[in-house]
Amino acid sequence: MREMSEIRHRNIHKLWLRFSVLVFTVTLSTLILMALMFYRLYRTGSLENVNLGPFAPLLMLIIISTLAGSTISFFVARKILDPISELGQASKEVAKGNFNVRLSEIQHIDEIREIYRNFNSMVEELGSIETLRDDFVVSVSHEFKTPISAIEGYATLLQTPDITKEEHDEYTKMIIESVRQLAALTGNVLMLSRLENQDSGSGQKIYRLDEQIRQALLMLETEWTRKDIELDIDLPRTEYFGNKELMMQVWMNLLGNAVKFTGHKGTVTVSITQREENICVTIADNGEGMEPGTMKHIFDRFYQGDSSRKTSGNGLGLALVKKIIELEHGCIEVESEKHKGSAFRIVLLSHFSENV
Prior knowledge:
The chain has 3 domains: 2-98; 139-196, Helix Hairpins (Orthogonal Bundle); 204-349, Heat Shock Protein 90. Helices cover 60% and strands 13% of the residues. The protein has helices at residues 2-43, 55-95, 110-158, 165-196, 209-219, 221-226, 244-260, 292-295, 317-327; strands spanning 204-208, 230-234, 239-243, 267-274, 278-285, 331-337, 341-349.
């Protein structure tokens, strides 16, 4: 750090020294040019009848002005160029990955103070993004490691001599399940990456929202019929202007969670309420429910309230849902109570204009 500080001070010194030398050189060049012109006029005899007496004070004034201007430029250069040099050095540190750099916003020049303030805000935001990226990489690595380790373990067991058919089928089943988890995780990560660069107005069209939700329920029919879940459906005809493909992801995730966390012979309620300015979709269940601490983080990436991992999932489903709803200019709310179920409410704009 001391070496970096010494380098910074040397660079600052060089900058204001060059500036001062430049001003001095320009002033001195002008003085020399005037002296040469005066000498030329004198040599040609144009100044023979001119009394040189008055010119002596003038020449002295020029010399004094030159020295005074150079001195003032010297100090002014430091005031102007020091902050610029400091900003340059700080930018180099940021380029190296050091997001702890901060510039003092106590400056006498308003423009410099504003530049420093914007620089500090930029570095703080970059630091936050870097932290999120690191957390994301760690989480993805952890989520990939679990099914890969399972595949390796069960594949090793399959090589064991004299295993029974039941054991063979069980190990094969677990390998297939782990592969599905990997496929789902990869798909969700790619979807999130795509959504980060998604244009909020792309792929939008008018379609039947109620029919789309019914299609999602039919795709999950095997799950809710296996658990003998009762469906309480109230889906009046509703037209919606939005991205049909992305919204299907919303319903599949929310309905899939409702079915997954509802016990045998439980109830899942799905309803649409349409008003003049918005559409409210409610998906509720009377299943396990959530504790207040869990509810605060359910939309975070890779967060899973079930720490025991008794249920399948990778903690990306609700993060995808929230991101899609934001792209659709809507909002999502959740109410839940442990052992009494959960209710998700999605509010969407009902306007059909592409300018929404």
